[in-house]
């Protein structure tokens, strides 16, 4: 689990994903939280992450996290990594906050927690992300984390933060 000021980022295990695939409201008693109707942002990704974890259970922690707003006891978003570090030591993050919790700095907080956790592992040299060119709020989140543009292609902007440029806690 990754803890930030307002959030607990709970690493999904196969049981979490099985529950989501059957009925997302099943997470309520499992986690002791409310699950908003607007969650998850990308429901189609849950079966993909489930299959990845089933085929490589040792990769728990390098896939999906559930973002729990501690004070409100609500599932406020999801995100995580697109797998373990690659050969160059790079991991890619992604994140989504439910509409009713946007505009509160939670995306920056969650993404910062993911970045800090990733860079605490010696084999991670950099963290990457992608945004749509017109995604002003996601771009601002990445800028606050200290990420820098790293090219474009396939309709997305790429971002990167090298280990030596990371200032833990500097963005929150």
What does this entry look like structurally?
It is a single chain. The chain is α+β, with helices and mostly antiparallel strands and 172 residues long. It has a single domain, classed as Aminopeptidase. Helices cover 28% and strands 28% of the residues. It contains five helices and eight strands; from the N terminus they run ββαααβββαβαββ. The protein has an eight-stranded mixed sheet with strand order 1-2-3-4-5-6-8-7, with helices on one face. A hairpin with a 2-residue loop joins strand 7 and strand 8. The radius of gyration is 15 Å and the shape is globular. The model has no long low-confidence stretch (mean pLDDT 92).
Compact summary:
This protein is α+β, with helices and mostly antiparallel strands and 172 residues long.
Walk me through the topology.
Elements: E1 2-3, E2 7-11, H1 14-22, H2 27-31, H3 45-55, E3 64-69, E4 74-81, E5 90-97, H4 106-119, E6 126-131, H5 136-144, E7 148-153, E8 156-162
Parallel strand pairs: 5-6
Antiparallel strand pairs: 1-2, 2-3, 3-4, 4-5, 6-8, 7-8
Helix pairs in contact: 1-3
The CATH class assignment is Alpha Beta
User: Looking at this structure, what is the CATH superfamily?
Assistant: Gcn5-related N-acetyltransferase (GNAT)
Shape: globular
Number of E strands? 8
Percent in strands: 25-35%
Q: What portion of residues is helical?
A: 25-40%
CATH topology (fold) name: Aminopeptidase
The CATH architecture classification is 3-Layer(aba) Sandwich
Protein name: Acetyltransferase, GNAT family
Pfam families: Acetyltransf_3
Domain N-acetyltransferase: 15-168
InterPro entries: Acyl_CoA_acyltransferase, GNAT_dom, N-acetyltransferase
């Amino acid at each position: 689990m990754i803890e930030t000021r307002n959030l607990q980022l709970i690493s999904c295990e196969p049981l979490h994903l099985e529950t989501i695939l059957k009925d997302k409201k099943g997470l309520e008693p499992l986690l002791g939280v409310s699950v908003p109707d607007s969650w998850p942002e990308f429901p189609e990704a849950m079966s993909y992450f489930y299959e990845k974890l089933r085929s490589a259970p040792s990769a728990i922690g390098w896939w999906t996290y559930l973002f729990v707003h501690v004070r409100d006891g609500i599932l406020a978003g999801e995100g995580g990594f697109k797998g373990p570090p690659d050969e160059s030591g790079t991991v890619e993050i992604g994140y989504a906050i439910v509409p009713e919790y946007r505009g509160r700095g939670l995306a920056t907080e969650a993404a910062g927690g993911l970045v800090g956790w990733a860079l605490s592992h010696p084999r991670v040299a950099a963290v990457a992300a992608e945004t749509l060119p017109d995604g002003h709020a996601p771009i601002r989140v990445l800028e606050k984390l200290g990420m820098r543009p790293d090219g474009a292609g396939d309709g997305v902007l790429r971002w990167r933060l090298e280990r030596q440029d990371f200032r833990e806690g500097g963005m929150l």
